[in-house]
Design brief:
By secondary structure, the protein is an alpha+beta fold. Helix content is 26%, strand content 50%. It has helices at 13-21, 26-45; strands at residues 5-9, 49-62, 66-78, 85-98, 101-109. It has a five-stranded antiparallel β-sheet with strand order 1-2-3-4-5, with helices on one face. Helix 1 (13-21) runs antiparallel to helix 2.
Length: 110
């Protein structure tokens, strides 16, 4: 794994969800866990591996307590018995400064 790269592997799905959720606000972590719980069975059954490389990023807005960042990713998905698929993504990520530090409070994909 290199800097600016994120991976999700079917073998360690739950641990990776826990690691990601620890960097989120409580409310967004609950939403994230529901989404990942809904996707888990199909992800594991397909023995999927997803690698997302950050291609570019920029700060959209910033204040003392909140930052909105635009992130461009190239996502590579591999499943058993299937060819790899490349999907470009654009994410708007909102982080807020809370007592524990900066946490993700929202992610919008397009």
């Amino acid at each position: 794994k290199k800097a600016g790269q994120f991976r999700t592997l079917w073998k360690t799905y739950d641990e990776q969800v826990d690691t990601a959720a620890a960097m989120m606000t409580t409310g967004f972590a609950e939403e994230f866990r529901q989404t990942t719980d809904d996707a888990k069975d199909a992800f594991v059954a397909a023995e999927a591996e997803v690698t997302a490389d950050v291609v570019a990023q920029a700060v959209m807005t910033a204040s003392a307590g909140q930052v909105e960042v635009l992130i461009f990713l190239n996502q590579f998905t591999t499943k058993k018995d299937a060819e790899s698929v490349l999907t470009p993504f654009r994410l708007k990520v909102t982080l807020i400064d809370v007592e524990q530090g900066w946490l993700v409070s929202d992610v919008q994909a397009s």
